[in-house]
Amino acid sequence: MTAIACDSSRCADAEAAIRSLLQPYLVEEFLARHWEREYLHVSRKDDNLAASLVSVKDVDEILTTFYSSGTHRWDAVRVAHDGFLVSPAEFLRNREGPVAEVDVERIAQMYQGGSSIILNRVHEVLPQVFRFCSALSDFFGVNVHANAYINPP
Fold this sequence. Notes:
This protein is an alpha+beta fold. The chain is built from 6 helices and 7 strands, in the order H-H-H-H-E-E-E-E-E-H-E-H-E. The protein has helices spanning about 10-20, 25-35, 50-55, 55-65, 105-110, 125-140; strands at about 70-75, 75-80, 85, 90-95, 100, 115-120, 150. The protein has a 4-stranded antiparallel sheet with strand order 3-2-6-7. Helix 1 packs across helix 6. The protein starts with 10 loop residues before the first helix and ends with a strand.
């Protein structure tokens, strides 16, 4: 397989990342049939990749340490309920322009009430997601970012 844009020192990580992302599909098949041509949905019954990138513990730590103090981009954390985004006024405080304080307790209440939590740009706060996105960026030659969607059981 020939990677699209990675340099030789990082190709192995890039190829491993794209293989794990596409599994059970082959990278060669993806490049020949889907890349810039056709949508590909990869569905897995047991998603070890996702679990290795973002765990429940990670989400809890992000919310209770990183987002629980100070101001952050107002859209760093979003909440959705019944398929629609909830107004940020429901879970943000002291919004001034592009930044606000995140009401973590309110988000937890909303989650327990059936709402989903959306962590935008999770690659900026989780090193393992940053490394994975960087490897994909090396492979494709474009910036790759990640969001996490946490749905209630």
